[in-house]
Amino acid sequence: MNLPISLTLLRIIFMPIVVVLLLTKGQNMDLWAVGVFLLAAVTDLLDGYLARTRGQITNLGILLDPIADKLLTSAAFISLTELHLVPAWMVVIIVGREFAVSGLRSIASAAGYMLEPSELGKTKMVFQVVAITVIILQGHRFPALHPLGEVLLWMVVVFALASAVQYFWSFWRRMNGRVARRPSPPESIIESVEKEPEEKDVAAH
């Protein structure tokens, strides 16, 4: 346990608070939701920066950081769907992508290596934070932001799909490389396996 991991865990704690603020009707609740959400997003920048500068990059942090990001953004998008601010089919694509990449990371981890965050994935996260902020504010306070919110939402979908393809391609190439480097069994073992049935046939006669 170190400071970067503590910030990552704090981001997970912020997730239900954002959901409650979004779904609670009241004066300035949208502003409170945006404030807490942006504070959680800032912890994403801080934990990575502190981990690099302090030399505290750990396997736990590498695995936990994207999970915290996915929980925060997925919970926000699902809440916005409940508020009829985001189309459900777009949220299905965004959240489905998060589950797929998380599963891929788990398989890669079980195989003994890590899938590092890609530049497309980081860009997608930036668009998600900006899109969620704009969509919350456009709900009742600034309707004029609606066109911008739609554009940002489409950018999130595009980068979500593009980064998912990149992760799957990286995973497939890595696994193919492992299979190609796997040593073949010695010829003597193959010959002994092939001769064994013949010996049994001779014994049977």
Question: Would you summarize the structure shown here?
Answer:
By secondary structure, the chain is an all-alpha fold. The chain has helices at residues 3-23, 29-53, 59-82, 88-110, 119-138, 146-181, 187-204. It contains 7 helices and no strands.
Keywords:
205 residues; mainly alpha; Four Helix Bundle (Hemerythrin (Met), subunit A)
Can you describe this structure?
With 205 residues, this protein is mostly helical. It has a single domain, classed as Up-down Bundle (Four Helix Bundle (Hemerythrin (Met), subunit A)), CATH 1.20.120.1760. It is 81% helix and 0% strand. It contains seven helices and no strands. Helix 2 runs antiparallel to helix 5, helix 3 packs antiparallel against helix 4 and helix 5 runs antiparallel to helix 6. It starts with a helix and ends with a helix.
Layout of helices and strands:
Layout: H1 3-23, H2 29-53, H3 59-82, H4 88-110, H5 119-138, H6 146-181, H7 187-204
Helix pairs in contact: 1-2, 1-3, 2-5, 3-4, 3-5, 4-6, 5-6
- Give the helix proportion (percent range): over 70%
Provide mean pLDDT, rounded.
84
How much beta, percentage-wise?
under 5%
Total number of helices: 7
Q: What would you call the shape?
A: globular
